[in-house]
Amino acid sequence: MAPSAKLSPGEEKDFQRDTTKISDLVLLDEISSKGITSELSARYRRGEMYTCIGPVLIAVNPYKLLEKQGSIYRDGVARFYYDKTPLEVTPHVYSVAAEALKGMRSKRQNQCVLVSGESGAGKTETAKQLMQFVAIISGGGATLEATKQQLLDSNPVLEAFGNAQTVRNDNSSRFGKYMELSFDFKGDVEGGTVSNYLLEKSRIVGHGAGERGFHIFHMLTLGADAKLREALSGLGAPPAYAFLMNEDKRVPKVDDAKEFELWKAATTSVLAGIGYDAEDEREVLSLVAFVLALGELEFEDHGDDRAATAKDPSKLERAATLAGLTGGALGTALTSRTLSKRGGRSSVQMLDAAEARLTTLTLAKETYKRLFDWVVRQINQAILPAHAATSIGILDIFGFEIFDANGFEQFCINYVNEKLQQYFIELTLKAEQEEYAAEGVPWQDIEYFDNKVVCDLIEAKKPTLGVLALLDEAGAFKGADTAKLMTKFDQQLKGKFGGHFHPSTNLNLRTTFTIKHYAGDVDYKADDFLDKNADSMFNDLIDTMNSSGAALPKALFEDGRTAEERAKRPPSVSVQFKGQVNELMAALHACNPNYIRCIKPNDEKKPGLAVEDRIDHQVTYLGLVENVRVRRAGFAFRMEYGAFAERFKMTSAATWPVVPGDARAASVAIVSAVDPAPRLKHVAGAAPPPLEETTGYVLGKTKIFIKEPRAIFALEGRRNACLARVVS
């Protein structure tokens, strides 16, 4: 990616911060949900999608491809933001990316960027822009350029398998992704790794009205040419498949056939270096077609022996061929189950038609999930860095979900969002107040909702079991059902955990319970919790797929378990997911965090339309009011004395051209030059004065703190004027 020309002075002006306008919500006169919503809405209607709260970026989804305007995402803009501080420029995703990259390079400290918000708020596109910025700013060279292109091309590869159209979002991520970009000792990107979380497996076998299955299903069935269709045993178009709800749904302005060609090119670009070829591509697509073919299978009972058979043997044979199996082997695996007994003995249990159908759905979901995991592993193998020194992680994960009907998937999604909100609270609101205490800076605590109690309600193991532990406990007993699970919930959770759990009092909704989340109350239907939490694969299915004559399905279902492990109950979905969440949180805690809060302005996906009720709800549950209050009550700016003196040394004769040895004294000289009578409070080592007296500059133990953003703008203005005189 060749460097582009710098922005012209006129172009630079478009991105320089105008101190007469409010782009930082800390400057608002009215600190309330209404005031913040009104300002965000007004800015959005003017075409200003980005706003900030200090270092936290607020991004309102523009619902249009801004890059096609040749405007705010071109290379010159990225380089301009990298050369400036956040105080000098308008809010932008590139400003967050620049601070993360500069912090990593200068401090050798791993960084992460948390992109959060509800479904359809623009998280995935924002994450792409972060990656694009890194690609622009990183160094050149053929090898490095190839690595950067691989990282960028991994996005469409993953989106094909993990994204789908929903009622709220035409390209909704139905899995969580943590992309860790790795850098060498020079600070240039040299590879990365991808971690994926909680793929929405239920979407593989069906979806809601007005939605679609995963993109790859539609891309393949609409984009395959005649030769490929023949190779895939007569692949049909979307209306031919039950898993696609027998409908041919098109996403507006998206050509699935064209996207299929782009996916093939991107996959080859990413994986060619590890030997991925046309045969690998055929096997991948054959398994996608196999999953769709499983959805076409129907079963019927024969006699009283529970023995089910396929209604249409030709459909069974076609599905089996796509997976490298015989129709007989696949049919046996779908209609019977081997039961292990003591002493190494076993018996075969025949399944009825309903059980065979459920087994088929389980195989379809597990095959697709394992294929998706395989794709992620191949990408990681292809982009694995050789000698990573530091990293920047980008978290793009499903936003909080509240639907008319919320099941196990929404519960898991909202659980991880509670954990991320807890992380945000700890690393912004708590950390801000703790920093003031450590520096001896006067401070009055700001109240905010600490959602730890909700996290405990979901994940606690002692002294009281939370929802996940109770779910696993109930699932361990034979004959467990939803009624027994709800009884257990009522007995163990009602009246505890701060009243954030409420069973339904409606007799017609006895399988429904409510959790008071930080984002609002959510009613969950527990009918599917036990089944989806177990989601167990019979050993017969694993063994049959592993016997395939095709390399890929055989590899996907390779079983390295011992006989003893095969006999045990496999870990539940919630146990596996909780482990993944804990790993993610550990990774985030090892990094310096940067935040982007995405907001969905309307449900119609219309550019320029700001529905204030929708925005206000998100402002509330994202905790933006508390965020502004903490920032406003505290200090908008803080910097270590040495760095402060070096940046502003040209503003004072006492510090120009060389900063004297005492950086603290130099900092005082600088603010005195800008403000002849600065309201300085030397608080380190002394009792803090009342907060109302500390309205100017405060000297902490190691940093200078500036309360008013306008004072920072005055400093920056004097610095720019002095630099202009030096240059002239």
TrEMBL record:
One of its GO terms (biological process) is endocytosis. GO terms for cellular component: cytoplasm; myosin complex; plasma membrane. Residues 20-720 form the Myosin motor domain. SMART domains: MYSc. PROSITE patterns: MYOSIN_MOTOR. InterPro entries: Kinesin_motor_dom_sf, Myosin_head_motor_dom-like, P-loop_NTPase. Belongs to the TRAFAC class myosin-kinesin ATPase superfamily. Myosin family. One of its GO terms (molecular function) is actin filament binding. It comes from the Eukaryota. Keywords: Actin-binding, ATP-binding, Motor protein, Myosin, Nucleotide-binding. ATP binds at residues 117-124. It comes from Aureococcus anophagefferens (Harmful bloom alga). This is Myosin motor domain-containing protein. Residues 581-603 are annotated as: Actin-binding.
